[in-house]
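Cross-check.
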Amino acid sequence: MKHLKPQSLHGLKNKHIAGIVAILGAAILLMFSSSAAQAANDPIQLTGKLSQTTFVQGGANTVYLDIIIKAPKQVAEQNKVARATDMMIVLDRSGSMGGAKKMTFAKAAIRDILARLNNQDRFALVSFANDGITHSPFVSVNAGDRENLNSIVDNINASGGTNMGDGLQAALRLSSANSSERVKKVLLLSDGKANQGISSTQGLSEMVTQITQTGAVLSAIGMGLDFNEVLLTTLADYGMGHYSYLEDLAGLGKVLEKDLSDTRTIFANGSTLDINLGKGVSVIDAGGYPVTTINPTTIRITTGQILDNTDKHFVITFNIPAKDVGSVSLGDMRLNYQSKNSQYETPLTDTILELSIVEATRRDEALKSVNESVYKQTWTENNLGRMKKVLSKSVREGDKDKAQQAIIDYKQAVEKAEKESNVKIINSEMEEELKTMQDEVDDAFVGSASMQEIKQKRSSKSIQQDSIQQQRK
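Predicted model, tokenized:
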């Protein structure tokens, strides 16, 4: 159902009012017959700003679209009733979880979550090592069941390999059989790398996508220094949730508490931004969110869960054909989201996605079309975040030269962007941040081999998390 605004009755003759009121009444009844009437009446807003609208023929062919997805505040805070939740924990119990008190912290955090759930909520527990085990299906969290669940958690021991795929399959079976109207949340906790069963990022992402199709949201939490941060980040994105990295596991309880708090305020379980691309147009990046090709002219960006009264803010980077003078259409886009078991659609209507390609003699016209604020913000946040992903990967692979080159390439790209746009981007704050990154890279390759390995793991995970925060405000 699409959100429709009834037209004004001003100026209509009285004899038409009764008929119109009857029609509007029927429409209102139809709207409220949906379980997502609130979403229909107060929809998500989708707005955008282009970095530039006019380009010189044969010149720069990259344009940035700054996107904001804004959810409404559904209920006044003083009247808000916490939404009942179906919370599932998928816990890594492989042998490595026995070190550094990881399992101890994980168990304490799960017990804390159980203490915060009420008798309207339900809880399920899955774990994985060499295989996936369902320790408990969804059960109500009343006093008796809470005690039993705590006992189950206490009796889990760490041993074996890391068959994450089998754990996710068990989670999928539980979620598929769950027809509850509650908010569905899955939390994946792992300290390692998938090394048994289905272990590829693509294969595991497909499983997570199936979990979201049951109406659940999956978030991933990496514990310690040995997990695969790229894998967990990707799973969180495909799971419509978020990714967290914790080396200091004492903070695990707070992270899980925030996940529960977020679950209470979910407006949309999941969302995707579909773009029908104009001729010759392609998408290079979308704030780091997964980009899927639906057909040769349509792509889908997985933008995830949306919380009440919050914004999702990210940049889409387009490559456009600038060889010939004329107009270029980026295409059209619309946000699709699921709220309270119903589907909705919001098109981007406030931004004209038409660009002009002009002769070199009209360069001044192209420069005047640059939105300085969007352009500068894109380079100091989004593009810096993209560089940090390259930097993280290089450090993780132990390639110091490639890591240093990533910083050099970014600075040169910024200098080129300044010349093309006449926008001042480099300032003392950016210079200091780049120097800090360079120092961190240098330090990660100093010391004994074992010390370097630890520092590179720590640095790569920290930079990876920074890159996500940099691209998604």
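The mean pLDDT is 87. The CA atoms of residues 262 and 307 lie 7 Å apart. Passed to J.P. for a second look.
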